[in-house]
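Run Multidrug ABC transporter ATP-binding protein through structure prediction, thanks.
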Amino acid sequence: MFWLAFIALLIGTGADVMIPVLVSHFIDHALVPRKLDMSILWWYGGIFLALQLISPLLHYYQLLSFQKIALWVVRQLRMDVFGKVQHLGLSFFDRTPTGSLVSRITNDTEAIKDLYIHVLSSFMQNFILVIGVFVAMFSLDMKLAPYALILLPVFYILMQTYRRLSAKVYHVIRSKLSQMNAKLNESIQGMNIIQALRQEERLRKEFGQLNQEHYQAALKNLKIFGLLLRPATYVISLISIVFLLNYFGLQSIAGVTIKVGVLYGMLNLLDRIIEPVNQMMMRLSQMQQAIVSAERVFTLLDQTEYAPKQEGSQNPAIQQGRIEFDQVSFSYDGKNDVLKNISFVAEPGQTVALVGHTGSGKSSIINLLMRFYPVHRGTIKIDGVPLSAYSEEELRSNIGLVLQDPFLFVGDVKGNIRLHNRSISDEKVREAARFVQADHFIEKLPQGYEEPVGERGATFSSGQRQLLSFARTIAIDPKVLVLDEATAHVDTETEEAIQAALDKMRKGRTTIAIAHRLSTIQDADLILVLHQGEIVERGTHQELLALKGLYHKMYQLQAQGTLLQTS
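Sure, done. The structure for Multidrug ABC transporter ATP-binding protein is below.
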């Protein structure tokens, strides 16, 4: 499609520049005073009409083709960028604002479309037209045409000056737009907190400041655009016309015969060369913006910070679910360890609970077990096999994760439990819901399992979202359960029902559970007490109470808090 469009562009442009050459030749050779040959007139008229018809038809074809190419490229590019983002590691998302990523995938790829449209179509068309005009000038007057070549370095310097000045401004424009998207995304997600704490005015001012900086940068670019583009090329055009008329005038004074057709042709071609240059200069604005956007998009595409992948060619299977941490240390920033020499073993069917104050490293242990982050030092094994040796599919189908903050996708209840896993039938979906006792509220919904779920499940209560998340995990029948305070958002009655379901589910399965409420993990086979990234105590509930250490203090504080609430 590209080469056919390019050939059409060449022929269409050739037809454009041939028109003034044809008229010039007609004036000088066929238009004889008091002697008009009608056959020659018809011949010239036929060619003129053919050129006038060929040119717009071919330009329409090439323009449509280049537009199709541009749309195809952007469509593919968006898929590439979105696919890339899906496979990046969580460490990348830890330091990259969500709004900035959204801006790159939507706004910046849309700007790249302008790059393809203007470069492949308008810019290329005008550039070829300029070349064609110069070729036509040489065919008309070999002595005068070389003087016209002086215009090329002049236009080049003008373009380079604009490009250099506008590049910095466009970087600021795209950066501020990205920051506004990030601020907007943050504000919408935290709207309940903003309104509850009366932060509307502060956020309005912060957004207004970013908006003002974007406005100032855009205004600065507009001034550069207004000064260097059409006014500058208009002055160059006037100087060129004055030079051309003076050249023919001096030739006439010197007694040299002046061909009226050549004069007409040169003036016409000179006018034709100024307009495409104007168009190219005007397109530099969108082109510069698109190049900046392309830099941002391809910087994202060039990211190599992937999520940890399988190492080796073996494909071991998780059979029992025995988990072993051996001297594991980990740091998010590469400087400060959040985990220090963590070692423990969770035998099949055992429940290992992780307790500790905020920031003690509980979630980091889960993140490493789920292979969201690479292990820096030490080893993690499942069934005696290093975690890195398992395939992504094997890990995700055998380790069930329930987070403290459940995430629901737009769709329906059944789809959120199944998550497009074709191996999970409708009956299995219902069984999973019954297992966690979520069927009670699901069946009361107007459409039951077909009930629509909005963004993040906003129409459901926190407890209902948690139950659906739990049912989603049960549906895959995992050998290992990972619970990050899974009962934090459910009431006491529901929590008791879930605990009963967990007791049945733990048989033959390994469970790693983070718990803030110590009452929920009193029956755990092993409790690990973490403090500042280290395991400071380990044992059963009764053993830890007997130690009268950190766990004992935490238990007493929670017991006192419960008594105060009861009283």
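The chain has a mean pLDDT of 82.
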